[in-house]
Amino acid sequence: MNPKDDRLEVEAQRLEEDAAPNNHLEELLFAIPPETPLVSLASRLQPLWEALSIEDDITAALFIEKTLKDYFGLRKSDLKPFHRACQKTKKAFETKKGSEKKEQEKTELLDRDINSSEALAAISTIGIVDPRIFDLVVAAYVAAKLHASPPIWLLLVGAPSSFKTELVRLIDLPEIYSLDTLTENAFASGYVMPDGSDPDDLLPLLDGKCFVIKDLTTLFSLKEDSVKKILGDLTSIFDGKYEKFTATRGEVRYCSRFSMVTCITPAILGKHQRYMHQLGGRFFFIRVPDLTPETLKRGHEIAWNPIDREQLIKQARQIVSTYCYRLSEKAVALYPMIRPETPAVQEWINIAADFIARARGTTETKHLSFEKEKTEGGEKEKIDYYEVSNPQIEQPWRILNQLRSLARVLAAMREKVVVTEAELESLKAIAVSSMPIDRAVVIAELLKEDKLTAREIGERINKSAKTAGRDLKELSSLGLVLSEEVNDPKTGRDAKGYSLKAEYKKFLAGISPPEIPF
């Protein structure tokens, strides 16, 4: 036989084997007598279900619908329990396989203590991170292990490629549940599986964990109704109890409490600010500082590091995960012994909660105009201005409880049993990050100097006097700034001079404007 004939014979044999039925499955099925009573089939067919669990869904379904049905002489209406048993075994197999894969990929912790300096040093080999932000991300993880109430939900706001996602994914521990994004009915679905079983809802899987969402950008790209649905669910879930009713599943109810860390860019946040208002005060915002010349230089050094980046990431993840685990174990022991806050700390948190509530309040702004007659020639001049009305300021109680909860977590992390000024300093970045950027830059200028006019502030922040005036009117209507008549030295005319209220200026003392993350 020549080589050409050999190849033809091999190919023909291959095609014949591909067309042949799955003899292994049939052997398992035919080993059971066809006259076996239905009540005895469940246990007898288990080896078949295990074999089918490694097949694709179509193959498994067709085998049941055709081969198994004909062999036992069943009706189509009798097959539902068989499909259910097959799917149950397949799900168990996939769960086991996933657990084994996670076990293989699990970060192996070091058998020694790690301090924050070593953890930050490891991170600095792969990216630029602000120590205060790292501290707050770790606090969100520790809060999950402490079952802190209310929970800590943290939203990192930073430019693209600002090391947000990489940072939150450095903690690789069992209490971390990570997803890239969310779908409309992820928390609790109304869908019923073909075999009659309930779907795998996300919410019960999150209880007691730190939920990490890579980026909210994908979420906000969904249809508006879907975005509102997910944010509405989060509003209910924050309080620890979630209930819904569907026509297919009836009442679905879960009690689940978890901390959360997610990331977003300033552009996306600004574009969808109205969606975030729907969540009220559930999230603490923390803005990632822009690069300085020094951090930019350091970033270039990191980028050109000849050492394999994947290896550096693996090392950093091991060190950071070890640090978080050992820190959380110590915090768990100390947390029940946290003593009540002193009157001075209580007063600080009261003012902080009031400031945040006002700083992120909403107003209605209308652009209006009128005509003013000039003194010469009888001509009229069109004057444009903004009218700000209907301020809506949330009550500060939820924010107060969140701040107290986070302060206590930070204290336990630092091996303290009482909240001190050091923990309050960590909360200041949250206070200045929680307001829209337009307001933050104005307040930064009012921290430097009192009685500034809209023109003066506009020149300092590179905006028109009208735009700065609108921002100042918003801050005034929200009760953050005061105004009084002053003489504008440049125009020689009377104008309104704006100042930050004394209690808020004192509260923000110690934060120099360059440190305010915009």
List the helices and strands and how they pair.
Blueprint: H1 3-19, H2 23-30, H3 38-44, H4 46-52, H5 57-72, H6 80-105, H7 116-123, H8 131-146, E1 153-157, H9 164-168, E2 176-179, H10 203-206, E3 210-213, H11 217-220, H12 224-238, E4 241-246, E5 250-255, E6 259-264, H13 266-271, H14 273-278, E7 284-287, H15 293-303, H16 309-334, H17 343-359, E8 362-373, E9 380-392, H18 397-413, H19 421-433, H20 437-448, H21 454-460, H22 465-477, E10 481-487, E11 494-500, H23 502-507
Keywords:
5-stranded parallel sheet, two-stranded antiparallel ribbon, alpha/beta, disordered C terminus, 518 residues, 52% helix
**Classification by helices and strands:** alpha/beta
| Overall spatial form | elongated
Biggest beta-sheet profile: 5 strands, parallel
Distance between the termini: 80 Å
Main sheet: strand order:
2-3-6-1-7
- Oligomeric state, counting identical vs distinct chains: single chain
Q: What low-confidence regions span 5 or more consecutive residues with pLDDT below 50?
A: 15-21, 512-518
